[in-house]
Amino acid sequence: xxxxxxxxxIGELARRTGLPVKTIRFYSDAGLLPPTDRTHAGYRLYxxxxxxxxxxxxxxRELGLGLDDVSRILCEQETVSQLAARHLTALDEQxxxxxxxxxxxxxxxxxxxxxxxxxxxxxxASMSDDERARLLDEFWDxxxxxxxxxxxxYARMRSxxxxxxxxxxxxxxxxxxxxxxxISDPDFRRLIRVMSERHAAAVDAGENISPVPPEQWxxxxxxxxxxxxxxxxxxxxxxxxxxxxxxxxxxxPDRDGDDPRFRADLAERLxxxxxxxxxxxxxxxxxxxxxxxxPTNHPIAAWLIAAVRASATNVNVVHE
Length: 320
Description:
single chain, mainly alpha, Multidrug-efflux Transporter Regulator, Chain: A, Domain 2, three-stranded antiparallel β-sheet, 3 strands, 67% helix, 2% strand, MerR_fam
């Protein structure tokens, strides 16, 4: 116990703690390290408890705590654990923002962005998840306002929110920027509004919202892709057969799927919902949220609709 009862001048305290004399004097002047005593000449003296106190101050400062926070701990106004928890939360948020900034910079390098785009990317990427969700909610509020839509269907549509991870990739940042621009685009909003109006009209008329049930539509798209990959045209025999089958599935009990006029009407109804931007909406959400990629089916759907339209002009329709 060689230090018990001993006192040290600032110079010796500096040698034992590795801190500069200037720093120790600063802490002492700030009231964090009051001297234990003074020499006859007025020099400050510190005891072993002062040394332990200085080591604590040094550790807390290395952890990034300010002088006020250090003072609160030393005065026992707040425990180290409480203060550490508070600073940990703040540090996590700072790290999240630094990661976002890094992702934005990587995206800027990748895209060779101009200054205005850089400003936009930084602004959008800095938004919180709640702010992103609110922007999307405003979009859906506008496109469905005042319409008698299927609430369950629209609830599912609205539930898919853009959530960037804490450490997003440049691709995810780019996807969010493109997504935000898309849902803010007046033309896209008009497109989805028109789709919503048709949706509401179908609800009011007691008709199916989709001409073809989604699970069956996917099957038709897969088969149409096979025909496309084989180089077949929409008005080929294979295209016509697929169109006939599709029309019969889509026909309501009081409609005839073999009627060319019904097929012409069906082709127009299907074409009304055919827009590459609507598909892009879900592709961008998938990138941001880390979902499985959404395939591009727009050209295939266009081929299938063309097949239905072609079958409507075929006068040699065979009724079964």
